[in-house]
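Data deposition worksheet. Section B asks for the primary sequence of the deposited chain exactly as it was used as input, without tags or linkers unless they were present during the calculation. Section C holds the resulting structure in token form. Section D is free text for depositor observations; keep each observation to a single sentence. Incomplete worksheets are returned to the depositor.
Section A, Depositor: J.P.
Section B:
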Amino acid sequence: MEIMNAIAQIAQMVGVPCVCLGAVMWYVNALDVRQREERKTWYEKHDQESAKWVDALNNNTKVITELLTIVKERKDLEELTVVKERNGV
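Section C:
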């Protein structure tokens, strides 16, 4: 009840529009603080997920490089076999 009396006294002193403006300003500030905390949490989760994606991408790059090496070795072996067959060795 004391809070209501205080609000009524403030409204009488400065006017209802000023009290409403103050309430809206308080609400917007509280909302902004809450959203900043949510964004911070989201950014932290996003950074963790991004790190996992980077690891997965690096692992895929390693595997593709190894596969390319194997394919090149087999291609070289096939070319050597063709050359030997042509030369009758």
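Section D:
Helices lie at 2-14, 16-87.
The mean pLDDT is 90.
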